[in-house]
Design brief:
The complex is a heterotetramer, with two copies of chain A (365 residues) and two copies of chain B (326 residues).
Chain A: E1 2-4, E2 12-21, H1 41-66, H2 80-88, E3 95-97, H3 103-108, H4 113-120, H5 146-158, E4 165-170, H6 177-189, E5 193-199, E6 202-203, E7 206-207, H7 208-211, E8 227-232, H8 236-251, E9 257-262, H9 281-288, H10 292-302, H11 308-331, H12 350-361
Parallel strand pairs in A: 2-8, 3-4, 4-5, 5-9, 8-9
Antiparallel strand pairs in A: 6-7
Chain B: E1 3-5, H1 6-20, E2 24-28, H2 44-52, E3 53-55, H3 60-72, E4 76-80, H4 91-97, H5 101-104, E5 114-119, H6 134-138, E6 144-146, H7 151-163, E7 168-173, E8 181-183, E9 197-200, E10 205-209, H8 214-226, E11 231-235, E12 238-240, H9 244-254, E13 257-264, H10 269-280, E14 290-294, H11 302-308, H12 312-324
Parallel strand pairs in B: 2-3, 2-4, 4-5, 5-7, 6-7, 10-11, 10-13, 13-14
Antiparallel strand pairs in B: 1-8, 6-12, 9-11
Helix pairs in contact in B: 1-7, 3-4, 8-12, 9-10
Classes of the chains: A alpha/beta (365), B alpha/beta (326).
Bound molecules: thiamine diphosphate (2 copies) and magnesium ion (2 copies).
One thiamine diphosphate sits between chains A (101, 140-142, 169-173, 198, 200, 202-204, 265, 269) and C (29, 58, 60, 82, 86).
Chain lengths: 365, 326, 326, 365
């Protein structure tokens, strides 16, 4: 166990600890008494379905990218339990601030598959999505959404609305001052916000040990004056329970929480990346044994909540949804070029109107 | 009408905006009990409470990022950066988020925030307290950049900035905070955010400036008139978007133009104006468009800063040269 | 001479600089084992070890601040920012420290650092990956800003940047990383950091550009020559300081000038050049100095980015208009 | 004692603690066995003298400012023990990265009084000082020197030089991402750097409780993966001992350390500030009882190491030094205006030379 002790003779004035949460082990067996939410079979099945859909969707997106019909894309392979588990514990009126890899959360919250494709296909309309209208779009500049989450939470608190901001980012993001500043502020005002780090061990090619000297990422919350917990991020039951608890505490005015979800990125960083260049196949192989979908399936099957037939039906359903979404995406007519000026300001200042006209006039240029 | 200094006018506008709209919040370092290091927010916390007038931790990136988050949820945050030299940590939020939130979500989320900061040198302040890098901000699409040069305009433009549905960086000429006095009626009336102010009409020469440099520029116009030169003086006031029509109209009339700004010359906003005039009014020009600016060096500390800033003498020299050109 | 792409030329220059000088270190996100997301640092860690080719945590402010600290102790750090859209957190360090460390300590501490970053749109990358905000940097006194447009110039200018005793921001045209190929001799010879390159001589029209836009600009010159117009093409290459003499000399000869850049028009670096020409060569001008630029809006994502960037067609239209002006 | 415990049933995977160091109590009595350095009477007297000089110098500087002969100035009143104690444990070859209020450290390291006045008088030559040539000048943008410290320490480590970077900043600075990013990096590479926060309870008018929700600032180091210690920053014996230990550990390759020096700013923030606007006189009064100079004097007197005569002689000496320095400062001829272009680049590019000539030609403008 990690611990730092020096000057044993000086009096201790503060103590901190980090706890770890896991319920379902990689083989589907139970490691400790299950949380209340796990007794809801419908919920478990919904979580399972969401993860399966996400994985299939990712596959399709990569296929589209490989055939030149989609831009750079980031899959969730291996870490589906994190964003699905977190989103499942949110209410519609809560506010999601996702990172670029949090498709799972967006889908759970009602964003359409084709909208996500539109975004990664290079069309801003993908951000004007069917999810909750107050949710934030994917954030690409790593960690820069964390201060927004603090601002959202401050607004919610000021207006005395019982809503919670939920901010997701990666292990790499924990190195950004943005995240630290936001968490520190949330700590000052006991804001209704939950920060979640998807610790998938890698930031592109940079391994966690070069990202920080910390034993856990959960302990980063200590510097912000609140509680951090480490969760088995490949155990969706644990993710759901941790999220539920943290979001409830935040909603009840108990202040912010930090969740470190320890998982693994089984795929390349994005379609532009080749992870084989920097990490050994054995490491990836080893982590395949812990991945969240097989794990939950093993549990569900053991509990007789899920059958082979269910699986086949789900696969067919997901396939259908994904194919339909891809078709809709591919059929979406590009915006007119001059619309690049739309929504720049509430009203385009006259001084830029000529530029808009130039674009409009030069469609064939 | 009561007299107010520029900083008092800012204070009046903030109070009025907060009074009118419960969504307006003021945040920054020392804006609360202390009322801001320049007293721009004096009394506001007492009046509107510590939740709406919030002392933030010492973190500029945070201040700008909080504004984006609040604004996206429909509030109208007014952040203060204590000096312009500390605004750079906000640039990521300004460029990558505030200025494009509306565009990248196609109107779904918007960012009605204001970031205020004192601008410019001339108060013998320590290192890094004398910045005038408005040109960096004016290059960012989706942002508005505004700089008043009198108490009335400070009042009206700040009200407009707060009410504007898009992000505005509001630069306050430090040197004028207390030096500029004028009548300000606290009538809640905003000024337009895309219109330059013609402070003085003239047919021989157009002088364009903004912020504190208007002081020397107006003095130059006065002195030129004694030499028989009638200078038109334009306070640009809004740098992004800026009022091309007023600028081009004036130059079409006078054929001669001197632009005065405190920022370093290279890549200063004067370049944009000069380039536009040269592009759109070349045939009206009777003399080269001339820039009188701060120099391309680090603003020196107090002992030399007066030599850095455009002086009345430098403006006069340039104006005479432009007027004599043929 | 062997052929190299632009990104290979960068790699050669880095290796050469590290070989020549043990004080040169390379740092940034993914620059180590991975060799950089564009492979600019491929093989360097293997060759020079993980201490001199350092994968930093994901923190751009940190990268720039580490460079300042290392440089002040006499090392020659070369930091990489993965895309220009992520350079904004570095601005505080660039403006407040790197660019003025020498000046504010009156020469006691210096800052021989390089910050490299891919520049510009056109590779169908995600949001925030298509920035071209070089004008912000070129406004900062004490900094150098350099942008090559061919493999040879990438090699020679990067070597010069690393050897230069002052901070240099080195912008690499992403669109040309692999598209631009040319002969590069790895001879350790640096190019000057204040000299523009005349890529093509002509007496009818001066075309000025930098970085990736040189591609369309050269194509335009070619096409114009078929129309009987001899265009001189200048690759500015170093934006700060820039080579006024070459620019002014060319315009004095041709009397007509079109400036092409990818960045948004307002406050782009083209404004500075146009303003300078208008100020210093007004009487040589036979037509308005015209800018062909990116638009004053957020660079759109992949589906529309081609309409944002200056096209050959837009350059031709501007060039013809300028040539026909009288 | 601060502690954060939730989910008592989950296993603990990491524990942390913060200790506190104090030896000399406000009345000069000893609270625990003294460190080795305290047996060196010469050292204690040198520390005392440095603090007294600093206080007198501050007074003179304020007087100069009030009479329009100096710019904005920040006194160390009440917190002299921090920068003096820290600097005293450094070697000449170590690298100091001070904040704008760390006059005490600069003076200890050989910077001349008149050089400090020159800086605050608005003359850059004050930064080309007589202290170690590798030391950094005062840093005004709060916290922005911390990444430099990490960079310096990285260079020292790379070159295998047994030197240490020492970085000082205030409690306000701990809210800046700069400081966090730098500390996190130092933690990754176990760099030879010591970060010191002078927790004087206030950042201008912002009290510590609005700066952070943390119980201690020392715990900020936990997020960076190394040890933080809280020290009584008004006890120069404790400051010296903590600094000695931390610097030695850093020099010995044991990695970075973080010291929280808890003290109090008895004066206004700077000469531009009026602290009466935002904090009660009683609070200030209470802290006067703990201030470092009276405290050390009480100890020295009790130990018969210091007499009234010593005190009088020291006062006279310091007065003399300060007056001479002020005279030298006031007699310093301003730089020529055109020198604002000198040291902008190693060699001024020709394109800016005309501007320099313009300034040179317009001295009377
Ligand atoms: C501020 C910033 N710097 C660099 C990048 C380029 N980049 C994109 S993703 C990434 C790694 C992110 O790692 P992590 O935070 O762990 O998230 P993950 O990709 O593993 O989900 C980098 C460096 C970026 N998007 N934003
Ligand atoms: C980045 C930055 N923001 C704001 C300021 C203005 N300012 C100067 S000192 C100060 C308070 C600093 O407080 P602290 O870090 O506790 O140091 P102290 O003054 O108490 O020594 C502020 C806000 C600054 N210098 N730098
Ligand atoms: Mg990761
Ligand atoms: Mg303090």
């Amino acid at each position: 166990m990690a611990s730092r002790r020096v000057n044993q003779d000086l009096p201790v004035i503060a103590r901190f600890e980090v706890r770890h949460r896991n319920y379902v082990s990689p083989d589907g067996s139970i490691t400790r008494p299950l949380p209340a939410s796990a007794s809801d079979a419908n919920l478990l099945i919904a979580l399972y379905r969401a993860m399966v859909l996400l994985r299939l969707f990712d596959k399709k997106a990569v296929a589209l990218q490989r055939t030149g019909r989609l831009g750079t894309y980031a899959v969730s392979l291996g870490q589906e339990a994190v964003s699905v588990g977190i989103a499942s514990a949110m209410r519609e009126e809560d506010v999601l601030l996702p990172s670029y890899r949090d498709n799972g959360a967006l889908l759970w919250r009602g964003v359409k598959l084709e909208e996500i494709l539109l975004f990664w296909g290079g069309d801003e309309r993908g951000n004007r999505f069917s999810g909750p209208p107050h949710d934030f779009p994917f954030c690409v500049p790593v960690g820069s959404q964390a201060p927004h989450a603090a601002g959202v939470a401050y607004a919610l608190k000021l207006r005395k609305e019982p809503r919670v901001a939920v901010c997701l980012f990666g292990d790499g993001a924990t190195s950004k001052g943005d995240v630290y500043e936001a968490m520190n502020f949330a700590g000052v005002h006991k804001l209704p916000v939950v920060f979640v780090v998807t610790n998938n061990q890698w930031a592109i090619s940079v391994p966690l040990r070069l990202q920080t000297g910390c034993e856990t990422l959960a302990q980063k919350a200590i510097a912000a004056g609140f509680t951090g917990e480490q969760v088995d991020g490949s155990d969706v039951v644990a993710m759901r329970a941790a999220a539920e608890e943290a979001i409830r505490a935040a909603r009840d005015g108990k202040g912010p929480r930090f969740i470190e979800a320890v998982t693994y990125r089984l795929g390349d960083h994005t379609t532009s990346d080749d992870a084989a260049r920097y990490r050994p196949a054995e490491e990836v192989q080893a982590h395949w044994k812990k991945e969240p979908i097989a794990r939950l399936r093993a549990y569900l099957v053991a509990q007789k909540m899920w059958s082979k037939a269910d699986e086949e039906q789900l696969a067919a359903e997901c396939h259908e949804r994904v194919e339909v979404a891809a078709e809709r995406y591919l059929a979406t007519v590009p915006r007119l070029p001059e619309t690049m000026f739309d929504h720049l300001y509430a009203e385009l200042p006259e001084v830029y109107a000529a530029q808009r006209r130039e674009v409009a006039g030069g469609h064939d240029a | 009408m009561p007299e107010a200094t520029l900083v008092e006018a800012i204070n009046l506008a903030l109070a009025r905006a907060m009074e009118d709209d419960p969504d307006v919040v003021v945040l920054g370092e020392d804006v609360g009990v202390n009322g801001g290091v320049f007293r721009a927010t004096a009394g506001l916390q007492k009046r509107f409470g510590p939740e709406r007038v919030l002392d933030t931790p010492l973190a500029e990136l945070l201040i700008s990022g909080l504004c984006v988050g609040m604004a996206a949820q429909g509030m109208k945050p007014v952040g203060e950066i204590q000096f312009m030299g500390f605004i750079y940590p906000c640039l990521d939020q300004l460029v990558n988020h505030a200025s494009r939130l509306r565009n990248r979500t196609q109107g779904r989320l918007t960012c009605p925030m204001v970031l205020r900061t004192p601008h410019g040198a001339g108060i013998r302040a320590p290192e890094h307290h004398s910045e005038s890098t408005e040109a960096m901000l004016a290059h960012i699409p989706g942002l508005r950049v505004v700089m008043p040069s009198s108490p009335e305009r400070a009042y009206g433009l700040l009200l407009a900035a707060v009410r504007d549905p898009d992000p505005v960086v509001f630069l306050e000429p430090t040197r004028l905070y207390r030096a500029a006095k004028g009548e300000v009626e606290d009538n809640g009336e905003a000024l337009p955010l895309d219109t330059a102010f013609v402070l003085r009409e003239g047919r021989d020469l157009t002088l364009i400036s903004w912020g504190a440099m208007l002081k020397e520029t107006m003095a130059a116009a006065e002195a030129l008139s004694a030499e028989g030169i009638a200078a038109e003086v334009i306070d640009l006031a809004t740098l992004k978007p800026y009022d091309e029509d007023t600028v081009l109209g004036s130059v079409a009339k006078t054929g001669r133009c001197v632009i005065v700004h405190e920022a370093a010359r290279t890549g200063g906003f004067g370049a944009e104006i000069a380039a536009t005039i040269a592009e759109r009014r070349l045939s009206s020009l009777l003399a080269p468009v001339t820039r009188v600016t701060g120099y391309d060096t680090v603003v020196p500390m107090a002992r030399l800063e007066q030599y850095y800033m455009p002086s009345l003498g430098r403006i006069m020299t340039a104006a005479r040269r432009v007027c004599q050109f043929s």
